[in-house]
Amino acid sequence: MKKGYTIIELLVVIALSLIIGAGFYTFYTTVVRENITKSSLAKKEQDVFIFADQIIKDFQSIGFGVDYDRLKIKNGVGCDLSADNPVLSKCSNNNNDTISFLSLTSTDQVNSGCWGFIDINGIIKIYNSYDTLGRLCSSVAGNYLILSISKKLINSSYNYDPNNPNTNYKNSYAFYVGNSSYPDGFKVKYYLDSLNLLKECAPGTYNLQKSSTTTSPIISCVLNFQVKYIGIDNNFYDTFTLDTDPYQNLKKLQGLKLCMIVQVGGRQSTPENPRNYTSNQGCTPFDFSTNPNWRYYRWVIIEQIIPLKNIH
Fold first, then answer.
1. Do 59 and 195 lie in a common domain?
2. Which range marks the domain in which residue 158 is found?
3. Is the pTM for the entire model greater than 0.90?
């Protein structure tokens, strides 16, 4: 006669099955959770670099369409661009920088960033010029800034009509300004503040704000923001001495270096040793030891050299 299973044996089998099943479930959920976390962090890192690329493009446009008399560098309180008509100003506060500059590509209006050359018939000829959205420019009616070939200001708001061109401005450069006034409508300022900071941001972080015709946060949870001048000797400087000749400083200036530390993801359960800026590469090393909480967050380091093509 065959003997069947006892109730105790069945309970033991069921218990073992539950234990094994729970183990598989825990393993599965842990793997899925880790993959989701890694994917989320990778996405946030990618977003940080996308926003950083926007900042780099803005910095590359410094001096675009700016007249000769404004091509000066000034450093001072508040990074004011009004004194001495500077094109670029930088100031520091608590190891973070503020930078202000002039660029005719700074507004969000259509055709911002478009420019051309006025021929002998007074017609604006556009040559491989693109607007801020990357679209190929065309010669359109509207207000233009007119500069001579030596970058002297001729007219800050010339109302161009393709059907009735003005030959008085022949052999000059034309930069689209649209409804914005020059220079006030083309002032750009990057700075840090903690207004409306996201809850998941680590203590001591900020929003990086861009102020132009409007003010908007570019990146949240920024721990450190530095901008260094790069001289023609490839050395890094915080300031340049003002000279009598407006071009004197700009001849010494080759580019900028952008340095940023940005948080990605929320607080972690275990601390780590955050990576810092590359030594001897212009960025002043950040002191993570001043706040132990910073070790519980993941940080992205951005170090980017930016050539200034529009100031010489």
1. yes
2. 115-176
3. no
